[in-house]
Write a structure and sequence with these properties.
five-stranded mixed beta sheet
């Protein structure tokens, strides 16, 4: 074989490979997949393809991730987070076949405390119209009718886009692009409106996925929607009220009145007692100013705190400090209870210390070893910390020191519980006390 023949043969083979003409084989089509955590009983879920744990995505509730895969059949894994070495966690698997020219949404829903992945497949979007598909992931609620109407039109005389029970889908629908409002009603009863959303846009040439979710006491609404486009858009009920509660942690421990937007007679909360959270009460939507006064004496303003009443949300207002010079902290509350986890939140009203560390150990553990779960100035409120059910000991330290202010305080937490620990000034200038709140006995 001469050199000229060898070179020609190599060039021909290279041309065949570059042109993709190896026995007529073509590269598989690409598929777009949206993955969304719609399981309210889980703090977060991890999603991964095959055993590629290094590429796992952590998905908090109502969040989404978008992936591009080759059209093929895959094993996908959904993993529940673990909160201790003794907890093996749980894993769910599913193996869909991804077809080319199809858009997919994997909705990680929940039924009876277990993750149930739902695969939603939609054809390519029409070029000049919008396409929607819907899933009812509210597994504990009865069937619903879904309406999509132009803003200001309402549903009087309208026909539902579909009816679906728990875990059921409304198949793809094509409709003109533009702005819409989502309505959910009890199935067959348009007078029983469960949700009226704010307006949102459905662009031409796109597919939007609407997922109905059980709020599970996250706020004041029973149900909400999530619109999956390039990012998840929450669709809250515009008629859901805002609510708030107050915790009086003033240094003198005297009761206080708390008024909202200068409504002093009667105040929203009368004679709030020291370190006892009030019940939740409805507050106006939009700008809200809390005013704290001595009981029955609205002429003495000890605190004015401007905030906002948010549709469907609950909040806690904590105030502390000496009489006449109170300070306050405000935080939104999350009443969503988790299947196998407890939620623990810390509040600091110990105003005689610049900052306080909250440390949790197992019974008999060394409080100088763990990192604090929270470091808080007074007054302030932490985020919720997930914690494995069981028995623990709580310590308070002056931040940046080994000065023990309180502890050990034995505590026990259970799955699904929501707990609060409030630090207040102790009987002397070197100590603090702990007040246990919410689900603590």
């Amino acid at each position: 074989m001469n050199l000229r023949f060898v070179v020609s043969f190599v060039l021909v083979c290279a041309a065949l490979l570059v042109g993709g003409c190896d026995d007529g084989r073509k590269a598989p089509g690409k598929v777009t997949v949206q993955v969304a955590n719609m399981a309210p009983g889980f703090g977060s879920l991890s999603f991964q393809r095959e055993q590629e744990s290094r590429n796992a995505a952590e998905l908090p509730f109502k969040s989404q991730q978008t992936y591009a895969y080759d059209a093929d059949t895959y094993d996908f894994f959904v993993v529940e987070r673990t909160l201790s070495d003794a907890d093996p966690g749980r894993t769910w698997t599913f193996a869909p076949t991804l077809e080319p020219n199809t858009h997919y949404t994997f909705a990680l829903t929940e039924v009876a405390g277990e993750v149930q992945p739902v695969v939603i497949a939609t054809p390519p979007s029409p070029a000049n119209d919008a396409q929607i598909v819907a899933l009812n992931a509210a597994s504990s609620l009865p069937p619903m009718d879904l309406y999509l109407e132009r803003p200001g039109v309402g549903i009087a005389g309208a026909t539902p886009r579909g009816t679906f029970g728990p875990q059921e889908q409304i198949p793809p629908r094509t409709l003109p692009s533009g702005d819409y409002v989502l309505f959910l009603t009890a199935a067959g009863n348009p007078a029983d409106v469960l949700l009226t959303s704010s307006q949102f846009n459905l662009p031409a040439g796109t597919t939007s996925t609407i997922i109905v979710v059980d709020e599970r006491d996250q706020g004041t609404a029973v149900v909400s929607g999530v619109l999956l486009q390039s990012v998840p858009i929450p669709l809250f009920d515009v008629n859901a009220p805002a609510e708030a509660r107050v915790i009086n942690a003033a240094t003198d421990r005297a009761p206080r009145d708390v008024a909202v937007n200068d409504q002093f007679s009667p105040p929203l909360f009368s004679a709030t007692q020291f370190a006892e959270p009030t019940p939740y009460a409805q507050i106006p939507l939009g700008p809200v100013t809390y005013t704290v006064t001595p009981v029955g004496n609205p002429g003495v303003l000890e605190l004015q705190l401007p905030t906002n009443g948010v549709i469907g949300r609950r909040a806690t207002v904590l105030f502390s400090g000496p009489a006449g010079a109170l300070l306050a902290s405000y935080a939104e509350d999350d009443g969503r209870r988790l299947n196998r986890e407890a939620k623990l939140r810390f509040m600091n009203a110990a105003s005689q210390f610049l900052s306080v560390d909250f440390v949790i150990t197992l019974p008999g553990g060394d409080p100088n070893q763990p990192f604090p779960l929270a470091q808080l100035f007074a007054p302030s409120i932490s985020d919720y910390a997930p914690i494995y059910p069981g028995d623990y000991e709580l310590y308070l330290f002056q931040t940046g020191t080994v000065n023990l202010l309180s502890g050990p305080t034995p505590i026990s937490v259970a799955a699904g519980g929501i707990y609060g620990a409030l630090a207040v000034d102790g009987p002397d200038t070197a100590t603090a006390n702990v007040v246990l709140l919410d689900d603590f006995p």
